[in-house]
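Narrative of accomplishments. A recurring question from our advisory board has been how the design workflow behaves on a single, concrete structure rather than in aggregate. To address it, we present the structure tokens for one chain from the evaluation set, followed by the sequence designed for it. No filtering or post-editing was applied between the two.
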């Protein structure tokens, strides 16, 4: 990483609360509601119920509850996805879950375990950004800035190693003058490689860590612009809390 890349990353990490504070915690929990066209594309019904998301900060592990029934939750790691009861009984599970998406297109139907895996890796990524850029094997480099309306956003291109489950290996992150994340570009490999531009805003602070409370992922056109009439996923977060 060049000095220039390190300067931007350091400013980004500090703006979101700082690495030292981040390392004091092991878990973040938040209430989430979501909607968007992706669920219909996958043959799923998405309700407006608020769910409780739990994300482990220093390992790839997540859970959401309720899932499928009031007494059920998910148990996500990259190598296994499961639906369990609150008493720990396994309702369904799939090992090496990423393989189950091979050959999928944009409208290939998902079963509950597909959905649980997508929720697990995506929310784990979102709720650990930008601090996951410090994980072993993750490389961040500054690329040319981006003009968004009247604003000029600096960008980091981040390359994830194969052992980090996320949307795709190479992703771009855009930052405002305050060094807070504004936009996140990726392709949804598990759904036919849909190009997406996710805008984030309405930051909230919990235990000194700043996190966007609203995420809106739109389809991205060939010029890198968001197609704002094509909302793939919306996520609202509230009641965020960190614990050790």
């Amino acid at each position: 990483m060049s000095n220039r890349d390190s300067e931007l990353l350091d400013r980004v990490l500090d703006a979101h609360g700082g690495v030292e504070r981040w390392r004091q915690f092991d878990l973040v929990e938040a209430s989430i509601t979501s909607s968007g066209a992706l669920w219909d594309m996958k043959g799923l019904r998405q309700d407006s119920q608020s769910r409780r998301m739990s994300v482990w900060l220093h390992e790839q592990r997540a859970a959401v509850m309720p899932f499928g029934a009031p007494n059920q939750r998910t148990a996500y790691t990259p190598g296994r996805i499961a639906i369990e009861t609150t008493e720990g009984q396994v309702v369904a599970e799939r090992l090496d879950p990423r393989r189950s998406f091979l050959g999928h297109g944009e409208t290939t139907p998902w079963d509950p375990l597909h959905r649980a895996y997508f929720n697990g890796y995506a929310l784990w990524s979102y709720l650990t950004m930008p601090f996951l850029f410090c994980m072993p094997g993750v490389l961040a480099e500054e690329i040319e800035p981006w003009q968004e309306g009247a604003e000029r956003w600096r960008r980091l291109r981040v390359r994830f190693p194969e052992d980090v489950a996320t949307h795709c290996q190479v992703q771009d992150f855009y930052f405002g003058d305050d060094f807070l994340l504004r936009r996140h570009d990726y392709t949804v490999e598990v759904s036919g490689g849909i190009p997406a531009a996710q805008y984030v805003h309405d930051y909230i602070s919990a235990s000194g860590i700043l996190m966007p409370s609203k995420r809106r992922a739109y389809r991205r056109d060939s010029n890198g612009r968001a197609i704002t009439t094509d909302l793939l996923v919306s996520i609202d977060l509230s009641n965020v809390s960190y614990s050790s």
